[in-house]
Amino acid sequence: MEGILFISRFVTRTLVLSSLWLMWIPLEVVCSTGNASASSNYSSSSSSSSLKPNVINIGALFTLNSVIGRAAKPALEAAIDDVNSDPNILNGVELRLLLHDTNCSGFIGTMEALQLMESDIVVAIGPQSSGIAHVISHVVNELRVPLLSFGATDATLSSLQYPYFLRTTHSDYFQMYAVADLVDLYGWKEVIAIYVDDDYGRSGISVLGDALAKKRAKISYKAAFSPGDPKNWLPSYLDSMEAVDPDMMNILQGVVALRHYTPDTNLKKRFMSRWKNLKYKGNAGPAGFNSYALYAYDSVWLAAHALDVFLKEGGNLSFSNDPNLHEAKGSLLHLESLRLFNGGEQLLQTLLRMNFTGLSGQIQFNPDKNLVHPAYDVLNVGGTGIRRIGYWSNYSHLSIVPPESLYTKPPNTSTGSQHLYSAIWPGETTAIPRGWVFPNNGQPLRIAVPNRVGYKEFVSKDNSPQGARGYCIDVFEAAINLLQYAVPHTYILFGDGKRNPKYDDIVYQVAQNKYDAAVGDITIVTNRTRIVDFTQPYMESGLLVVVPVKEAKSNPWAFLKPFTKEMWFVTGGFFLFVGAVVWILEHRINHEFRGPPRQQLITIFWFSFSTMFFSHRENTVSTLGRLVLIIWLFVVLIINSSYTASLTSILTVQQLTSGIQGIDSLISSTEPIGIQDGSFAFKYLVDEVNIAASRIVSLKNPEAYLRALELGPKRGGVAAIVDELPYIELFLSKTNCLYRTVGQEFTKSGWGFAFQRDSPLAVDLSTAILQLSENGDLQKIHDKWLTHSDCSVQINQVDENQLSLSSFWGLFLICGIACILALAMFFYRVFSQYRRFSPEDEEGEVEEIEPSRSSRRSIRSSTSFKQIIDFVDRKEVEIKEMLKRKNSNESKQQTRRSSDGQASSPA
């Protein structure tokens, strides 16, 4: 299938659906009968032996006097001559072409195919028509002759039903997916498909429907016409050099179409330069070239390459009688003359393995027997010719660069990578057509508007010609004004004005086509989305619980509320721990940390807690003690500041309380609950939350809310009201914030405009609503209608504001590590001194008996724990004096030993 035509048209309906005219006219059936005849007087040179033949017959079967046939015939004959003149292929075996004309008829094509098979051909080329190809494929299947078609593009021919059919052009399967990508690129959701009403046309439309479904689009209408319709000429010129009547070109202005893409290789350019001088063209004319000439030429070379490999591998070119046809002997059709090609299966597998570069590009088959790298030119008709606005390939889909330059890169089929140059559409405009508009003389959209009793700021009746006003109406009008087309509409009030209408009923009437759309404060909920399409939400919503509240009484223990219990315990523990660490570090060198045990214990407690107010009077002397104290004072500063801020908030901010804490409290209680009349909240509370219907009280307006809350459940009122967030905000503002919400929103939803199923307006208005949100107009409309004083919607939850350990564990960790490191360094120093220290009265005796190492081990083993504590408890100055005295004595003894040694030596 070669021609795909897009024509933007305006279509009118009551509620118009966006559509694109898609005309599918198969070029392969573009054929008109003429007087041309095919040459078929070649004699077969094949024998029943497996010896190397001198001549190999291949057949060609197509309509000679057609746009494709006039280009394919000279190309085939040129290819035969080129093969026979090439000494590197077939090794001297002549390739002979037998031409038969199908005359654009399935019946004649079948007869010609049978006559062609009588010549014992090994490969058949053609036909150009998918309809004829379906019939002939049964013949070649029976006789095991591979059929190479350069024009039959029906996707169903690639099925397992036709094993001997090979396509040397691209399947319509890929062309339909290219069409779907174009539809998606231009934002269309529905198309009207015009196609030829035969098996081939219906097959293509089926593939197109599947491709569009993957893009969330669809065919809204299928327009079929007869295969013999004279308008079939239209796509035949998209791929031809023949001049077109200017009057016809005027009709085609703005058409976007697809054409098979063939790379501009040097091989192709040389062939095209030969084209006008080819001796085989006859009446084809100097401009009779189209891309099917390239595919026909490559088909001959594909057969030649496969036969060359087939013969080199010892292939058998013999024929034998078909036992199924032998039984028909005696028939006037002489079917017994048709013989089986014994090497057909082997030659078929050889054809599937071929890989070479032809005039049309790479000739190689994938596992589905389709050529690799299918690609198309995207064309736009304008003026007196056509221009290419891009390419489509199965590798990266739509692009503005040739497909072969993309094959070396990773495939990218994302939406953002799909690009084409601008097309000039009918009317010489570059604006992408919608495909439909509302007629000036048609019926306007019937839009249902709820006739509310309360909260009229959102939507209400108006005496102006428009008939309705409010926040929702202004949002809808602003969104409509952003559309690229006019949408005439009229508002129809729904409800008697005495009580709020049921919104489920409004949505149902839209689904039943009584109204085209519904505009108002309509919540998007699940049961409604099943029957209508909603736009993008323009207002966030969700159910909340409103309750009466009272001010909380003062608490004498409020000073404990800033911290949690865990925080208080850990903070107090660290005060004592840091005090003990500082005492240990300062005890040996600071007289303020010495004294009787009772006094030292008091010092630890006093120093610990006085750091809370930075009023400690003891000075730290040691370096380690000062380091620990600096880190601890920083921690205390942070804790004090946080405590002060939290306590200030608790004591100064008004604290409100209520017996109901949220929806869970309502569920567990038995008190009545108020809801807005007509709201979906009734069904939600009964069906989803399992609250008894007898507990629910419907209220008309905010005044009814106020009376019910003031009365309370004991005097015929309600304990709480459940309603949507926008209404709650307005209600709290009007009541000067006398009431509060408790808990969180227990549903999440939004308000949207409802349209009938598959209405394109729902999609377009969703985009318009997003634009209103982005440019700030949506907020301006909100401020115009719903400006209100700010209320603290939630009741203050003191427990949620308490400072916990999780907020300060990092500070405590740093302080604890500093204390541990300081203690480790302190005790290391103390035990180093202790190892050097020993009582003077034991020193001499030990040194006389044992070596120094044994002496230290003996002293250490005999040392008691009390001696270690006494050593640690001594002042640093005393320890240093003792070590100094010990070092002096050791020096004197060393000197005395030296003198005694010199005196005892001989003179």
Features:
907 residues, 33 strands, 28 helices, alpha/beta, five-stranded parallel β-sheet, 16% strand, eight-stranded mixed β-sheet, single chain, disordered N terminus
List unreliable stretches of 5+ residues: 1-50, 840-862
Number of strands: 33
Cα-to-Cα separation, first versus last residue = 131 Å
Task: Give me the side-by-side strand order of the main sheet.
Answer: 9-8-2-1-10-15-16-17
Please write out the topology.
Blueprint: E1 3-7, E2 21-25, E3 55-62, H1 67-84, E4 94-101, H2 106-117, E5 123-125, H3 130-143, E6 147-149, E7 165-167, H4 172-185, E8 190-196, H5 199-214, E9 218-225, H6 246-251, E10 256-260, H7 266-275, H8 291-312, E11 319-321, H9 323-326, E12 339-341, H10 344-353, E13 355-358, E14 361-364, E15 375-382, E16 385-393, E17 397-399, E18 445-450, E19 460-461, E20 468-469, H11 471-481, E21 489-494, H12 503-511, E22 517-518, H13 526-529, E23 533-534, E24 539-541, E25 543-548, E26 550-551, H14 565-586, H15 597-610, H16 623-652, E27 656-657, H17 663-668, E28 673-676, H18 681-688, E29 696-699, H19 702-711, E30 720-724, H20 725-734, E31 739-742, E32 749-751, E33 754-755, H21 760-775, H22 777-786, H23 798-801, H24 809-836, H25 840-849, H26 852-862, H27 865-873, H28 876-904
Parallel strand pairs: 2-8, 3-4, 3-5, 5-6, 6-7, 8-9, 18-21, 18-22, 28-29, 28-30
Antiparallel strand pairs: 1-2, 1-10, 10-15, 11-12, 13-14, 15-16, 16-17, 19-20, 22-33, 23-33, 24-32, 25-30, 25-31, 26-27
Helix pairs in contact: 1-8, 2-3, 4-5, 8-10, 11-21, 11-22, 14-15, 14-16, 14-24, 16-24
